[in-house]
Amino acid sequence: MTGRRRYHPFFALRFMRRTLLLYLVPLVQVLFRRDWAALSTALAQDLVLFCLLAAVSWVMLHASSWELDAEGVLRLRWDLVVSFERTIQGSQLAAVQIERPVAYRLAGACRVTLYPALLPRRQAVTLCLKRRDAALLADCLMPAPEQEVYHPAGGERLAFVLLGANSLSTLLLVWLAMRQSDSAAGQIAWQQLGQAAAWAARWLPAGLAWVLTVWTFLFGASLLRSFSHTVRYTVWRGGGVLASRGGLFLRVERRFRLDRLTCAEVRLSPAARLLRCYPVYLTAGSCSADDPLFVYRAGQEALVRRLLPGFEMPPRRRLTFAQVRGRSLVFLAPGGGCLAFFLLLLLVASWALPAAVPLLALPAAVCALWLAFEAEGLFREGAWPVGRRLTFLRQRRMSLCCVCIFSPAAALRITQSPWAVLRGRASLTFAYPGRLRETVRSIPLADAQTCAAFLERKEPYDPNHPL
Length: 467
Known about the structure:
Largest sheet: 7 strands, antiparallel
Protein name: PH domain-containing protein
Low-confidence stretches: 167-186
Keywords: Membrane, Transmembrane, Transmembrane helix
Distance between the termini: 39 Å
Shape: globular
């Protein structure tokens, strides 16, 4: 269909990048002995080494090729001394990711990563292709005609930016985003960052001021990264494929096969609850994106089901103390241990070093908040069948993760300690394709057995099946 084609020259640069440390070897003697007269000799050796590695890269580039045949099978070939060929069918793929950093865009290149459905992440295939070849390959292996399209706009995009910022300091300015318009939020946020740093330097001890300043800087950096991800962002579904595209500095396009989808996860973080906007993350095979696929407002569950047919949330249950009777207190161990440690430090500091009390109060408050969310997980964590899906709630740090399992190849493992046997409880481990695992801790044994029986009779996922 395409004939045998070569990779982009950036394919060879990936090998050159991995050998950067070799150029430092001739300079080690010059650095430690300070023999500056030998510097010219070391630079000459580096030049020879560079030419040798460049020649090896050129040979690798011309020994490698790829071809897409008429049946839609991708063939990756290596012809040097020995011949090697690897075939990949589109039906074997769970996801395709196309990345275009700034340097790649200037050179007309794309980094294409193919994620097989049943293999671990380290066995994903990464190719460096020309832009047209990457688009052709994605359209042939995983075609995605636009049938249902979603563009985040207005408050949804602002929530997308805030919830995609990977920093705990996002909470510092969430209240600002809830009260300002989209056009003014960015400018006011940066003004507040500068004012917060000046206030910290004036009124707080030096150590705590530095902590808050670094915290706000990390917030600005993560906010900028998240904003660049949402530029020209689009989500669409068609042909049994769910896809997204967007980005400013790093343009990323991801395509997920719905029949190979492992699970969909809604993360109820503190920021998501304050904004009443919830991010949705997808996992397909070994592909687990760090950024949310999209964000929906409370009451927009119909939007989620249009993009993800068959999606179900875990059932809402009233919080009662009967649910935690006999449950292990291991839920509270991480946050409780950290809080006890900082409270002990605060007690010692109040007697020996009162000036350090404000510096230790901040991490103690964070640990107290962490302990409060772990207590929520103590009440709510569990697993239940809902409709045609198996769902579970899992507390992860300060976020309550609501997961809906799509993969028919998921497996369960029920484990019980002697204490759990006496209390009628068990831990349920979900094993997904791609060697991914998730454990729901200390749930009633009857719920674990119900989930196992449900999974045994579960039918394969059909995205067009009427619910």
